[in-house]
Amino acid sequence: MGIRKIPYLNTAALAGLSWVKSPRGLKDHALGVRWGSTFAPVSDAALVGTPSFLSLVLSGISDKFKEQTLLVAYANTETSIFFGALTSGAKPVLEPERLFESQDELLSWLAKEMSQDGVQGLVLSAQLDVEINTELPTEQIVEPPSEFAPAVLTGRASKLDVSKTFEKMGNGAMVAVCALLAITVVGGGVLVFGNREQAAVVAAPIMKTVYASRDEGPFLRSCAAAFAKPWNVGPGWTLTAEGCGAPGMDTPIGVPVAGPVAYQILSLRLGYDAAIARAAAELVLGADDAQLLQSAGKLIITRPVELLEVNSAQPLPPTSEAILPILESAYLGKARTVRMVGLNAEITLWGGFTEATEPLASLPWAEVQSLTRRDGLVTLVVGAKRFTPFEIIGEG
After folding, report:
1. In Å, how far are 103, 262, 282, 377 from 304, measured between CA atoms?
2. How many C-beta atoms surround the C-beta of residue 333 within 10 A?
3. Model confidence pTM above 0.85
4. Which of the 8 DSSP states describes residue 149?
5. What is the pLDDT of residues 121-133, one digit of tens each?
6. 177: which residues sit within 8 A by CB, 6+ positions away?
7. Where are the domains of the chain?
8. 194-218: per-residue pLDDT in tens?
9. Terminal alpha carbon distance of the chain
């Protein structure tokens, strides 16, 4: 049925995309949907900025379940949308998505695919969840999380056909446009005159992209500054771990991250009374901005740090395959180890948070997933920032 723009959750999304492996040397302006190492080419530039329907319905599924090979099926009789797709490793399998004329057709396809080896689970809309009886693990499609950045159509058209536009213009408007095109030619642009089928090649607007994430610089500098001086907490406690965290980052269990914080986790020393040791910590930190939490013989102290949201145009992040050599070069002579863990890189080094994070200042695409120090060893997990289309500005 081809690509369709369909209604979903008070917005519009693209369904029926054909997924392929991202071509080597894929240009930023190539028109299509980018999702990890997969790419779905699209020919209609008017759809730029529209999210992938599959990325929206998959976004609310649990991360562990999403990594498996899944059949995704969605049915809505009110909008006559009957959709099916296959995913693996939290991204599309390299094949076309399916759009069906009826729910019966969708169920027939689903039954056939479920009989194949390798399918590990189902992702179903509520309408289908009550229709299907299976022993396969199943999760129901829910609304995307508030901070989710979907896979969207980006790129630009390479040509602008003005011949049809001229047909609709009055004489005055045509003269103005011709004058503008003449300036373009003098300035080095290319303009082809001839029969009506020939088009003027002019600069077309392009989709600028911005990172839907935090500005790492102020956050990391504020984190390092928080540990510039010792955190005095009184007697009875031994430091076991410290670091910084923010919403969306991985932090140790029990550390509250309603906002950006620096934290320390301390364990009660043998022979000390927990109530007395806590009272001493409260007395020492009473005039400070620290927040104290206690559970199971541990003391967690947090201090607020700076975190800025940004919407500034930046280059696209590197692919996951390119992250490792870039970080190896940035941390050459500094790191103990630099290795990939899934799609992220883990860096370990001896020292402080300033030494651990300074190399990231030259990597605007990098986003810290976790930052912890134990017994003097800093462990830093870094990934590529997510990005979303911001606006159509500039020229190609």
Report:
1. 52, 6, 17, 23
2. 4
3. no
4. -
5. 999 998 898 888 8
6. 162, 165, 166, 169
7. 4-154, 163-203, 212-396
8. 333 333 333 444 444 444 455 678 8
9. 32
